[in-house]
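Okay, is this right?
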Amino acid sequence: MERNQRCPACGEEAEQEVLRESHDLLLRCSACGHIHREPREEAPPEPIRVRAIVSAGTESAPGTIELMPTDVVEVGDLFVAEGEGDEAAGVEISSIEAVGGGRVRRARADGIVTLWTRVVEDVVVPVSVHRGRETIPLHQRADGEEIYVVGEVYTFGGKKVRISHIKLRDGPVLRKEGWKTLARRVRRIYGRFEREPTAYGRRT
């Protein structure tokens, strides 16, 4: 098993062979052979599906919105809500029902019972950037008809990311370079930084 990261001895970005896994990881640098320890990273939390009521004009229908447990949701935020079958729509949060039955303007996803929403044209696209065993979550507001292409570079959360694959709401995963889809069909985009951001302690 290997992971790609900077060696604390030689400073090179290189594969680090995992020699032993316990409370810490025992690693050996493939560039200089230095053996060192690193804290063991916890697995990222799994997304949850929060109940949503989606209103379009005078009609309302039940749906769900996929969120990470620690995401903070506010009235006015934009998301994609999924309905029956493959139906999905960009929505704006109009009201939040929190655990305990009260209505609030802001709450963590794992403390929400129901999101009351209205259909809008814009959506928020969730993005996961993998760097070794670390996953960095980003979000980007986009028109529902905006096109994303595997292999191309986009700006997400102010950072340049090259898309490696796209998970669609109706199941398939787009992996081949040049394949594309609309923002409203995206469940999650996966990619890598085109240029490592200094905000995460990496050189550019």
